[in-house]
Amino acid sequence: MAHISQALEASHMEADGESSGAFLRSLVIGLTAFLTVVDLFATQAILPSLAQHYRVMPAAVGFAVNASTMGMGVAGLAVAFFSRRIDRRLGILLSLALLSIPTALLAIAPDLTTFTILRITQGLCMASAFTLTLAYLGEECSAMDAGGAFAAYITGNVASNLIGRLVSAGLADYLGLAANFYFFAALNLAGAVLVYFTIQRATPMATTEPNAESPLAIWAKHLRNAPLRASFGIGFCILFAFIGTFTYVNFVLVRDPLSLGRMALGFVYFVFLPSIATTPLAGRAVQLFGTQPTLWVSLALAGAGLPLLLLPSLPTVLFGLMLVGVGTFFAQASTTGFVGRAATADRGSASGIYLACYFFGGLVGSAVLGQLFDRFGWSACVAGIAVALAVAALLTVRLKMPAAQPAKTAVA
Predict the structure, then answer these.
(1) FRET pair for 150, CA 20 to 30 Å: which of 174, 247, 280, 378?
(2) E strands along 62-121, which residues?
(3) Which residue would you say has higher pLDDT here, 188 or 226?
């Protein structure tokens, strides 16, 4: 009996240790995601201030701020091409450390052209860290719960959208635009420090196989995969819609009849709070209902929020923004998980191509929808966003796994 009691006690202690270890691991993954992409959307909270500072139209400053997605798209393709040759830990560490440089230089950018170039450089560093981390998590599936890891990473991404915007608005309001960028440069360095002290303790990365296919051959295999191609297009449409909504709505919120101040504009982004709770559920939803129904419901939810953005009522607009946020983040998490399951070779390069399409969608969205906003107004911009969501819904029809493809656990 004593031996049985000791064994039960030992098993309980082991379970408690695994539970606390899983929580700590998820916390570290979420923080890494947060510190990697916190610069990406934080600047959107101060778009009206930047437009006034550089004396330009909304479309011009919207494109400049979202030019980071150009760098992210290029870096995503580069990492996809060289995926197997890049040391994951060193690549993530260097990307975050170097990211602090263009972030700090934004504080003294003399004109919008310089500002745009620095944002592109930020995107190169952010996407390198982002894509390498996704590849790292995929390769560590045997050592950790993949669903929990990806959910923690996407949730950290969602949290950066909320907290980054709040912090950016507050700093710019009380300390000025320069202090805002210096603070975010410090956050980038904090991310590098976190990676230095955590990733080195993980299981070493798998080495490249001696007879591995060339990167171009793997890319060709990905592009011949019809469901995978469709997922790339869906990623493009998701960020196209998301960028269009949360870039140009800022200019609507500061104008009559809503007339929000700079700090109040930051508080608007509490609309992302529900997304932090719902996004981790995407993997479970895909398991229960399948990828296609999950995506259709997500996109329909985002679409239902669009008409509310046209009404002259702040609570109604906020509710519409919340629906768009929940729907697009859920769709992104579901599609990211599908890419990992649909890729028949080298998940790292498949993730890189997907992220490149995703971020290029954001760049095209900021340019196209910015022109619609400047020339025809907010209603035309919202109509363009609706078209992007409809195209994503049509592409979802193609997300059918081959019959011979073994089912894997969905990840968010």
Answers:
(1) 247
(2) none
(3) 188
